[in-house]
Amino acid sequence: MRTIAVAAAEDEPVLQAVAKAKEMGLCNAVLVGEKVKIESLLKELHIDDEFRIIDEKSPAQAAKIAANLVREGECDILMKGLVDTKSLLRAVLDKEKGLATGNLISHVAAFEVEGYDRMLFVTDAAMNTYPGLKEKVGILNNAVNFVTSLGVEKPKVAVVCAVEVVNEAMQATIDAAMLSKMNDRGQIRGCLVDGPLALDNALSVEAAEHKGIKSPVAGHADILLMPNIESGNVLYKSLTYAAYAKTGGVLLGAKAPVVVTSRADSFESKVNSIAMAVLNASVK
């Protein structure tokens, strides 16, 4: 069974999710944080599981300790508790005790959308703000490696833009065309890439046919590579709150998967995110 290191674990929703994940046989956990508060919360929540607790009152220091536990192989996954994301990422990127590999770190979210015949993956909705072409290659590769590990033999990647034609005034469309050509030439492997594609063309065969788009990706996308964090975040929240999709997310590209959930994320989403991290850790 995999083990998750929770940084600043004195957080009720996180403890509930970790306890549920253990009950489901997904993972065990080491809780790093203020021991008195953690024990009090476990008692209030009627969580009887025995977890190893490392006492540390400073959330930033708890993040460093948790990251180092993963680095040293005592744990397999890092998870954010009651610590700000900046402090957690600082611990992840620490050269001496962190999880940096030199690779780009990016976020991948998985969605189970009613009416869609497969899982849908969106990247990057939480980490990289305005990625250039080089960063988009890293984001794409992280997502493809993860989706492939789930058994999707050759994921179809739609590079999403506002339009489906290259427009020199829209850099995202130029990047999309370059990513598609890089895939054609074998510079990006293990997937099929097409772009630029507007969102409707990426998801709907009918929309693609109506616009005369002939592509094995159009209407069949597994992965939606978004142009920037704003569009990615809007799509993420639209699928979550308007389409009521089941979701989970994980940071990839470090030495181990990192679970960075928002306090607004549902209990189910937190458990799903842990499950995604466990799957990723199992193939490393």
Automatic annotation (TrEMBL):
Gene Ontology process terms (BP): butyrate metabolic process
UniProt KW Transferase keyword: yes
Top-level taxon of origin: Bacteria
GO molecular function, one term: phosphate butyryltransferase activity
Enzyme Commission no: 2.3.1.19
Enzyme class: transferase
Keyword Oxidoreductase: no
Similarity-based family: Belongs to the phosphate acetyltransferase and butyryltransferase family.
Protein name in the entry: Phosphate butyryltransferase
Annotated organism of origin: Proteiniclasticum aestuarii
